[in-house]
Amino acid sequence: MKKKVKARRWIQIAFFVLAALIAVNHTLAESGMAIPFVAEASLHAVCPFGGVVTIYNLITTGTFVQKIHESSLVLMLIVFGAAILVGPIFCGWICPFGTFQEWLGALGRKIFKKKYNRFIPYKFDKYLRFLRYLVLIWAVFITAWSGKILFADFDPYYALFQFWTGEVAVTGFIALFLVVLLSLFVERPFCKYACPYGAVLGLFNLIRIFGLRRNADTCISCSACDKACPMNIPVSGQSKVINHQCISCFECTSTDGVCPVAGTLEFNTAALKGGKDEN
Amino acid sequence: MKIKGLTAGLTFIVLMIGGIVISVATGYWATESSKEPVKYETGDFAGEYNPADIRGSYSFQDIENTFAIPVETLAAAFGLSGEENPEAIEIKVFEDTFGIIDGMEIGTDSMRYFVALYKGLPYTPEEDTALPRPAIAILRKEGAQSADELAAAEAKSVTLDNFTGESAAAATEDHDETVLAEIKGKTTFAELYDWGLTAEQVESVLQMDAGPRTQTVRDFCMEKGIEFSTVKDPLQDLLDSL
Ligand code: SF4
Ligand code: SF4
Hints:
The complex is a heterodimer. Chain A has helices at residues 6-30, 48-61, 70-86, 89-94, 96-112, 122-128, 131-146, 156-162, 170-183, 189-193, 196-202, 224-228, and strands at 211-214, 240-241, 265-268. By secondary structure, chain A is mostly helical. Chain A has 2 domains: 3-204, no CATH class; 210-279. In chain A, 51% of the residues are buried. By secondary structure, chain B is mostly helical. Chain B folds into 3 domains: 1-31; 51-166, no CATH class; 175-240, no CATH class. Chain B has 12 helices and 5 strands. Chain B has helices at residues 5-25, 60-67, 71-77, 93-97, 108-119, 133-142, 147-154, 165-178, 189-194, 199-206, 217-224, 228-240; strands at 2-3, 99-101, 104-106, 131-132, 157-158. In chain B, α3 crosses α6 (133-142) and α10 packs antiparallel against α12 (228-240). The relative contact order of chain B is 0.09. The A-B interface holds A 5, 7-8, 11, 30, 32, 39-42, 45-46, 57, 60-61, 63, 65, 69-71, 74-75, 77-78, 81-82, 85-86, 89-90, 93-94, 144-147, 210, 248, 250, 253, 255-257, 266-270 and B 1-6, 8-13, 15-16, 19-20, 23, 28-33, 84-85, 88, 188, 190, 211-215, 219. β3 of chain A pairs antiparallel with β1 of chain B, so a sheet runs across the interface. Residues 214, 219-225, 235-236, 258-259, 261, 264-265 of chain A line the site of one iron/sulfur cluster (SF4).
C-alpha cells in the first residue's frame, strides 16, 4: 500500500466542504434561510484568483471589478505569502477544485492502474504545461478590458460549485465536463494545462524559501518519488526540485510521503548533505 | 531547517485565519460592496446620501438604513407588501419582477426616483423610468416633493394590475434584444466603444476626457458631479445614429 500524506487528505476534505457550504449558503441566504455560522459571501468574494484579475483595475481606477471585493485581495495576499514559504501549497492542500480532480483521479487509477497519468510522454507534456500561462494572460487581459470577471463563464470550478443557480454559462459546463473526462486519464488536468491561478502560484516554486531538496548520497534511486508525483515531475533526477508545476503536496517526500529513506527528500531551507543546489 | 507537510498545512491555515481576523478587525475585510450610497458633496444637500447612487444590490433594509424610509413603506410603494421578507428584497429583482409596463420600465432607477421624491432630494430619472401607482399614492400622502415634481411623477406612473407574468416576460425579451446598445446605469466606457462610438465622440458629449474603460459612465458622472441623464441622452442619440 502506497504511503499517502494523510493530513493533506483531511484538510482537502475540510476545505471542499467549506467551499460547498459557502456556495450553497449564498443561494440560501438569498431566500432568507442561511445556515447559521456559515459565511454568506458569494464564491467570487472568497476566490483568491479574483484578487489577481482585479489588480489592473485597482491600480488604474482604484476600484474592484464587478463582484470582486476586498476579501479576494486579502486571500490572495495570504496565499502568496504561503507560496513564498513553501510554494503552491494552496493547490496541493486547499483548492477544492484540485481536490475534486484528485478524487476523480482515484477512479481513473482504478480503471487504468499503472498506465494512469502516464498517457502523454513527459518530453511533450512538459511543453503543454505552459498552456496555462496563455490562459492566465487571457484571463487577466479580458478582465482588465471589460471590468467584469468574464473568466467565470469558462471556469469549470465555478460551474461545479454553482451549477444549481442558473448563473453558469454553457461554456462553463463544457469546461467542467472536459475536466471530469480528462481527470479519468490524467491527474489534475485543469491544474496542469489550464488553471490561471496555478500558473501564478507556480512561479513561486522558483523562489520558495523551503525548497524541495534531495540528498543524492542517501538516495537509493528507487524512483518512488517520480511515480508518486501527481504532476509527473522527474524528482529523482534533481538535487533541488525547481519546477513551475510542483504543487507542494509532499507526496514524494521522506518526511510525509513515499521516499523510503529518512532525510533524503524534504522541504528544507538548506541544501541536504550530499546534495548540491545546482542540478 | 526542514518543514513537514502537516506543519506546512497547519501554518497555512493559521496564516489564513490570522489574515482574515486581522483584516476584519481593521475593517478592511468585505465580501460585498458597501451598501451605503455616496453623499452629496456640495449644494444645499451636502452631507446627505445621494439617491442617484442606489444600486441594484441594495436591499429594502439598506434603503431604510440610509434614507430612513421604512421597509413597509417601500414594499407598499412597489406592491410587494405580500412578500415574506420585504427587508431582504433586493432592488435588482424589479427588472425581472416588473420589467417593462406600457413601454415604461420599473427598475433600479424607479427606486432612486421614489427615494428622491420622498425625501425631497433633487434627481432626474431616466426617460423611461416608471413609478407604480401605489408609490404615487404614498408620495402624495408622505412625500417631501414639490407639487410640480409630484405632477411630473404622476405622468410617469403605471398600474401594476396591468402587468401579467406573461407580458412581463415578453417585454423582458425585446428588452434583451435592445440591451446591446442601450445606455444604462451599468454601461461602461468600454461598452460604448464596443458598440462603435469613438473616444472623440464620447468626449465631445462629456466635454472632458473620458474615464477609464472599465468605469461605468454613471460612476464617472457621479465622480465629476455631472447629471448622468444629461450625457446619457446625447450618447444614446449618437448610438442610434450609427
Ligand atoms: S514534486 Fe513532490 S511536492 Fe511537488 S508536486 Fe510532485 S510530489 Fe508533490
Ligand atoms: S523516493 Fe527517495 S530514495 Fe527513491 S529515488 Fe526518490 S529521493 Fe531517491
